[in-house]
Design goal:
The complex is a heterodimer. By secondary structure, chain A is an alpha+beta fold. Chain A is built from ten helices and 27 strands. In chain A, helix 1 runs parallel beside helix 2, helix 3 packs across helix 4 and helix 8 runs parallel beside helix 10. The longest helix of chain A has 16 residues. The longest helix of chain B has about 70 residues. The chains are: A alpha+beta, B alpha+beta. Chains A and B meet through helix 4 of A and helix 1 and helix 2 of B.
Chain lengths: ~400, ~425
């Protein structure tokens, strides 16, 4: 357990390994609550492996935290004050007193058939209205990773918030199986759902991203794309063009695609020359690629990216420093790192959590490995893959 | 060239390459959006989303030029402006950026938006640090202005402004075209509604008129019969005449059912050539010329109600003969046509598509006065007639029967050039 000691907000964290769900939730929550030093929790964040009985897990947590607002999701490994719990690792919990913030959340399940832009608008309005007016704010988005084009959801939220509200968050995951992920709101486990946590603040809140990838190919023009799929790059089947840029003489076997594509995501070139990362998670017999979370629009230029474990880890300190620099008295650093990063880092995955905490110093770090990261830093595009994002409160 | 110069040259080339890729992306993305055929609001929204992404603009607003009697501008679409701030008008003051942009022919680049009182306070409150205001020149003057703002202190460069200006011009023209298409579609819908209302009004009035006439006749006959009975006379004659009037009223009703395709009667195998010859024989008019298939292998055999088909033939031939100015001829032909050759202008059955492999084409051509487009447009509506006396039920009944048999009708006509009516009826697979 780590206890934060900022003047205006109290923070407690706790974790428990995979086991009997109610007991694990209760134990982790008790540890987190102890860090509040008797203060009332205003917000409880719960990130957990999908292998738990999730309903029982939340019941265990709330047997300790009572009716305090609870938000969270399943993920692909939790990040708790320098500790990486790993796939199937357990549950991580953060409890916060309100301090200078007001928190409110709105959520919905079964959004798979809905217009995600409209759903984003609806939930953003409800969350904003719940928190009430403030000079500044952040909207933390937690969505099911299998909803489709998650940028549509972000876009809808942005229509309501405008540029002054920081957008951050991550998509729930299921340890990279892409079968079922869950979002938590109070005592509910939402399937195909989304949640927006509104953080009303009197100070500006700042979102930071970093990824460590660099272009390794010539630019490719997206000539046909739909939903979360890219059909053609430069007029050729997308998989064929992608494999050619990697210098492969034979097409990748279906089962070999994901282990390769995770090491070579696409980079979508931004006006300032940086890249927003997109990971193709599968290909079909026609050479169509399925992108996780948000596909580059037709007319976009993408490049195949490359990186190393070192380059991915080396962004940690910069992200943490920039995020903390945005707050004069930071109390907690919330981090959303991609599950793909954990897979690539392999036996060095724990190093990311350690370096996050080392860079943050006395400020506790908390977050999880998600399946698409949300962070708006400029323009409307705020959905990322294989990226580390952070916000300090 | 030393190593330093060589490196600088490579860096410059790489930077040029990066800019070329970036601007290509910008143009490609915008073109992909503008090539679509969506309504104005959808096009505007997509354009703004793309511009926000492609120019790292946190705020993008498309303001439309003020209407008559107003100086203020309204946002057609906005990205990055909280939704509750979009509806309020934007100032169109002469010295404001919106009016200046619309008057000008170049982008207005603002590098210190926070200290600039001419910037709308909404932009300043959002933290917009740099901005560009662009005129949107349409074909008849400025359509409005496009504003992009960044909340970080990276100013829009002059080349970015020029590229955006060119894009704004293209966007304005596309929005103008989309608005015109939308207005045209709205007017066409209004016209269709008015025509439909007129057609219904005419039909309802004519049915009421016909039925009322017959009911008055029936009432008169029954009064007369009652008088005869009271006077000890013979009511047989008025009762017979009353019955005739009710039969005539029922005939109008049957015609309407045929027009609606609901006058269903049992169907049987009908040889079209033989039926045509039978009807021609009954009409016995020397102006009729026929070109018909003989019996045997070439015969056109349909599955239809023979009475219905006879009435189709009679109506078409009668109409054609009545259209002749005293001399001329009416030609009747029947042939087999494959489904892909069923065509005409217009083809009278909205949304009709072939369902059979082949069709019997019954063609009646006259050398008469022909029809104007206005007359043709109404010719198949019930109770529309240019003849006196005329009931206006012949062609509607033809259309109703043909549609009920899965067929369609094509008419080619022009004033002074005669009329050709082609009726297409589906042939069974082995006909």
């Amino acid at each position: 357990m780590t206890e934060g000691s900022p003047p205006r907000i109290r923070v407690g964290t706790g974790h428990a390994g995979l086991g009997e769900a109610f007991g694990a939730g209760r134990a982790a929550a008790a540890e987190a609550m102890a860090g509040l030093g008797g203060a009332e929790p205003a917000l409880v964040m719960v990130f957990a492996t999908p292998r738990f009985d999730l309903q029982a897990l939340l019941a265990g947590v709330r047997s300790v935290t009572g009716s305090a607002l609870l938000v969270g999701s399943t993920g692909s490994g939790e990040l708790v004050t320098g500790r990486y719990l790993g796939f199937g690792g357990g549950v991580g919990i953060l409890a916060l007193s309100a301090g200078p913030y007001r928190f409110a959340a709105a959520s919905a399940g079964d959004l798979q058939a809905e217009d995600l832009d409209a759903a984003g608008r609806r939930l953003a309005r409800a969350a904003r209205d719940g928190a009430g007016p403030s000079a500044h704010a952040a909207a933390m988005l937690i969505t099911d990773s299998l909803l489709g084009d998650l940028q549509q959801f972000v876009q809808g939220v942005y229509r309501v918030t405008g540029a002054k509200v920081a957008l951050v968050g991550g998509a729930a995951g299921d340890e990279q199986r892409f079968v079922e992920s869950s979002v938590f709101h109070d005592d509910r486990v939402l399937h195909m759902g989304a949640l927006i946590l509104w953080i009303a603040s009197e100070r500006p809140l700042r979102v930071i991203t970093g990824h460590g990838w660099s272009p390794v190919s010539a630019p490719l023009l997206v000539t046909r794309a739909e939903g979360t799929r890219i059909m053609e790059l430069g007029g050729r089947p997308a998989a064929e063009a992608y494999e050619a840029e990697l210098g492969l003489t034979e097409p990748l076997a279906k089962e070999a695609f994901w282990p390769t594509s995770i090491l070579h995501p696409f980079g979508l070139t931004q006006p300032d020359g940086t890249q927003v990362i997109r990971v193709a998670r599968s290909k079909d017999a026609q050479g169509t690629l399925t992108i996780q979370g948000c596909v580059p629009a037709v007319g976009s230029v993408v490049q195949v990216m490359g990186g190393s474990r070192d380059s991915l880890l080396d962004v940690v300190e910069g992200v943490v420093a920039a995020a903390l620099a945005g707050q004069p008295e930071p109390s907690v650093l919330l981090t959303f790192s991609c599950a793909a990063r954990a897979m690539i880092l392999g036996d060095r995955a724990a190093e990311e959590a350690i370096r996050l905490q080392q860079a943050a110093g006395a400020v506790p770090t908390f977050g999880f490995h998600c399946c698409a990261e949300f962070a708006r830093t400029s323009g409307v595009l705020a959905t990322h893959n294989a990226t580390l994002t952070a916000i300090a409160l | 060239m030393d190593g330093g110069e060589s490196q600088a040259g490579r860096d410059a080339a790489l930077e040029d390459y990066r800019i070329a890729i970036r601007d290509t992306t910008r143009l490609n993305r915008l073109s992909a959006i503008l090539d679509g055929q969506e309504p104005v609001a959808v096009v505007a929204d997509r354009v703004l989303l793309a511009l926000s992404e492609l120019f790292a603009a946190d705020v993008v607003v498309l303001l439309l030029a003020p209407g008559p009697g107003s100086r203020d501008l309204r946002a057609l679409a906005a990205i990055g402006l909280p939704e509750e701030l979009v509806a309020a008008p934007f100032s169109g003051d002469e010295d404001g950026y919106a009016a200046s942009a619309m008057r000008g022919r170049a982008p207005l680049l603002i590098d210190s938006a926070q200290e600039d009182a001419r910037m709308d306070s909404r932009f300043r409150d959002l933290g917009v640090a740099t901005a560009v205001w662009l005129p949107m020149p349409g074909s008849r003057g400025a359509l409005g202005t496009l504003v992009l703002g960044r909340c970080n202190p990276v100013p829009f460069s002059r080349p970015e402004g020029d590229l955006l200006f060119a894009m704004a011009h293209r966007v304005a023209l596309v929005l103008e075209r989309a608005a015109a298409d939308q207005e045209r579609a709205r007017l066409a819908a209004l016209l269709r509604q008015a025509e439909k209302t007129e057609s219904l009004r005419r039909m309802a009035g004519a049915i009421a008129h016909h039925i009322n006439n017959k009911l008055m006749a029936v009432q008169g006959c029954l009064d007369l019969a009652a008088f005869e009975l009271a006077a000890g006379g013979d009511p047989g004659d008025p009762i017979r005449r009353g019955l005739e009037a009710t039969q005539q009223a029922a005939w109008v009703g049957r015609q309407m059912l045929d027009y609606l395709g609901q006058g269903f009667r049992p169907r049987e195998r009908v040889e079209l050539g033989a039926l045509c010859r039978e009807v021609l024989g009954a009409l016995a008019d020397v102006r009729l010329v026929a070109e018909l298939p003989g019996p045997g292998a070439a015969a056109l055999a349909l599955v239809a109600d023979v009475g219905d088909l006879r009435r189709v033939l009679e109506h078409l031939l009668q109409n054609a003969l009545e259209a002749l100015p005293g001399q001329g001829e009416v030609r009747l032909a029947a042939s087999r046509v494959p489904a892909d050759q069923v065509e005409g202008s217009p083809l009278l059955a909205p949304g009709w598509t072939p369902a059979a492999a082949a069709y019997a084409c019954l063609e009646v051509t006259d050398t008469g006065a022909g029809m104007t487009p206005e007359v043709l447009q109404n010719a198949f509506d019930p109770f529309f007639t240019t003849k006196f006396p005329g009931r206006g039920l012949g062609l509607p009944v033809v259309l109703g029967i043909v549609q009920a048999h899965g067929g369609t009708v094509a008419v080619d006509t022009a004033p002074g050039r005669g009329t050709r009516v082609r009726v297409f009826l589906p042939l069974p697979d082995r006909a």
